[in-house]
Design a protein that fits this description.
This protein has nine helices and six strands, in the order E-E-E-H-E-H-E-H-H-E-H-H-H-H-H. It is of the alpha+beta class. It has three domains: 95 residues, Ribosomal Protein S5, domain 2 (2-Layer Sandwich); 30 residues; 135 residues, Butyryl-CoA Dehydrogenase, subunit A, domain 3 (Up-down Bundle), CATH 1.20.140. The protein has a four-stranded mixed sheet, with helices on one face. Strands 5-6 form a two-stranded antiparallel sheet. Helix 5 packs antiparallel against helix 7 and helix 8 runs antiparallel to helix 9. The protein is elongated, with a radius of gyration of 34 Å. The model has no long low-confidence stretch (mean pLDDT 83).
């Protein structure tokens, strides 16, 4: 299975300690970039949560937000105030205020925001942390499932475009032998129009030079090989975004060379169509993990 990097998942959990909500947004990115927003009571889980996200997701810009709302009657049992630290902060505020002409008193919320003033009881915080990790795991699994569903849709789109590219390649193969015949006929007609006797040896020499100029056999073979490799990668699945991007660059190069060598409108049109199809896939590959 291949995975898209664009998805969203949300999980809400009501436990003994209160309500937990986890939201994870994922968009495309060259590497894995994690932005984690946690309430103060769960700040200790930042590194374990980052590690868990890295274990599950390999590419993408990830924004994870966890909100916590204490349940009724749990505030007093879950939180304690470091009274000695709070008193010291109040004394410091009063001392600093004495130096000012127009002091403003510190509000309780200002004191509570200072690190260490509001503490959590170990027994209760451990239970809350366990619930938070479970909520994160559930949300990550939902996100991965969503990325997988979109990835499968993109896979079908890619395979359809590969079929169309091979159809255009078939037109080039079918048309190529006729190009030489028509060029020979055009040369003979020009010489007949001006009533100049053509040396057969010179004609063959001109045709050989022309054949070398428009030879796209290697481009056709390489295009076919790249399409086959893309199909194999899509079937195998996994982290395929960068490999697909590289192969599509190579496909685009072959289509460009085919178009530049062509002197035939049918082959030129087929090369243009292949470039359009390749570009459609390249735009979507940027979303693949």
């Amino acid at each position: 299975m291949i995975y898209s990097m664009t998805a969203f998942a949300r999980t809400q959990h009501q436990g003994e300690q209160g309500s937990l909500v986890c939201e994870i947004r994922s968009i495309n990115h060259r590497y894995l970039e994690i932005s984690l927003h946690l309430p103060e009571v769960l700040r200790v889980l930042e590194m374990p949560m980052r590690e868990h996200i890295r274990d599950v997701l390999k590419r993408g810009k990830i924004e994870c937000l966890i909100r916590y709302q204490p349940g009724a009657g749990t505030e007093n049992s879950l939180f304690t105030v470091n009274t000695s630290l709070a008193q010291a902060l109040c004394n410091a505020c009063e001392q600093i205020g004495s130096f000012m002409k127009h002091p403003t008193s510190a509000s309780p919320s200002d004191i509570l925001r200072f690190p260490g003033v509001l503490e959590t009881k170990e027994s209760d915080s451990g239970k809350l942390q366990g619930e938070a990790m479970q909520v994160l795991q559930k949300t990550l699994q939902d996100l991965l499932a969503a990325r997988g569903r979109e990835g499968e849709e993109l896979k079908h789109l890619f395979l359809q475009r590969m079929d169309l590219i091979q159809q255009e390649l078939g037109k080039v193969r079918e048309r190529l032998p006729n190009v030489m015949v028509e060029q020979r006929e055009r040369l003979l007609k020009r010489f007949n129009d001006v009533k100049i006797e053509l040396d057969p040896g010179r004609l063959e020499q001109e045709m050989v030079m022309y054949a070398q100029k428009i030879d796209i056999a290697e481009e056709i073979d390489r295009t076919d090989t790249h399409v086959g490799e893309i199909r194999r990668i899509l079937k195998h699945g996994g982290q395929v975004g960068r490999r697909l991007d590289f192969l599509l660059q190579e496909l685009n190069r072959e289509a460009n060379t085919t178009g530049s060598k062509s002197t035939d409108s049918v082959i030129t049109h087929a090369a243009v169509e292949m470039k359009v199809l390749i570009e459609q896939v390249r735009e979507q590959v940027q979303n693949i993990e």
